[in-house]
Amino acid sequence: MFLNFKSVVRSFFNSILKNKQLGKYFFFFCISFSFWFLSNLSKIHETTLNIPVECINYPINLVEIEQPENSINVRVKAAGISIVSFYLFNTKTLILNYDIANFKPIDNGKNLFWVMNSMRKEIGHILGNNVEIMNISPDKISSSFVNKANKKVPVILNSDINLRQEYWMTNDPILNPSSVLLFGQRDILDSITYVVTDLLIVNDLYKDVSYDVNLILPKLVESDNQFVSVDIDVEPFVEQVFTQNVQIRNLDQDYTMKIFPREVKITLRIPKEKYQFLKFNTLNLYVDASKCIEGKSISVNYESLPNFVKIVRIYPNELEYILIKE
User: CB under 8 Å to 59, separation ≥6 — which residues?
Assistant: First the structure.
């Protein structure tokens, strides 16, 4: 059929080329049609234009049970050229943002809606400046939602952090937020006690840094946060080994006690800027005789230290002993 149509058109133009009189008539017909077409494009017309609608920022704490309209019809008055341009070139969509939607409470949920007359400015941007909006249908777009179950759980950092030699972390990495609110079906949430982050890999760390790390969420579960901020504070440290006598405490008056060895080596780490602390503070090591068990070794204890001092090693950390009753 298409081949027959092409044959007819070809025959028509061949006839025009062969018949000069017919060619003149056809030329003037084209000129007349062009003037008529341009005249109609310049006139004002009324028509209905269809604009697609897209909803964004769906509320994560709600489940949609009624979908909104996916387009609107706008009755307009405009020049023909504006209408033709819209049909040929318009690719814009009316964006409806749930974050700024009106709402009406319903049983166990909300009805979110937009009044189209309040969106005339946005619709006008899509249609163009020379288009007069007469009517918008429907006059309201709405969608109904019911509440999701929710649960707050802690975030656990999954990390592989390697520090430059003679640097340490001032404290554990700080997560912000340290817990997140999850939304989903109740039976799924009941089985979740925490969420983890993507693996954070840091090498040769020697200065304070901050990273945004995505959360790994179970299927069919959403969160009020998609990522957490991880702050890592580091500083240079000094490491030093001391030889220290071990004291004996809580020994019954009827006993004497000997421990082997009497001296142990202790390795301490401290921030460089607080190195003077090591010179003016002596660490007290002791064993608690009240916890002696016959024939067993006894652990070496130490007094509480400032949080900026770290004990790397006590060697040996258990001592042999002899209890002698007097």
Answer: 98, 110, 112, 145
Which H, E and C letters describe 43-75, residue by residue? CEEEEEEEEEEEEECCCCCEEEEECCCCEEEEE
**pLDDT at site 15:** 60
Q: How confident is the model over 265-278, as pLDDT tens digits?
A: 988 888 888 777 76
What is the pTM assigned to this prediction? 0.57
| Residues 6+ positions from 183 with CB-CB distance below 8 Å | 60, 61, 148, 149, 150, 221, 222, 223, 224
Please state the separation of Cα 310 from the chain's center in Å.
Answer: 35
Q: What is the largest CA-CA distance in the chain?
A: 143
Q: Give the side-chain half-sphere CA count within 13 A for 174.
A: 10
Q: What is the distance between the alpha carbons of residues 189 and 209, in angstroms, rounded to a whole number?
A: 33
DSSP 309: -
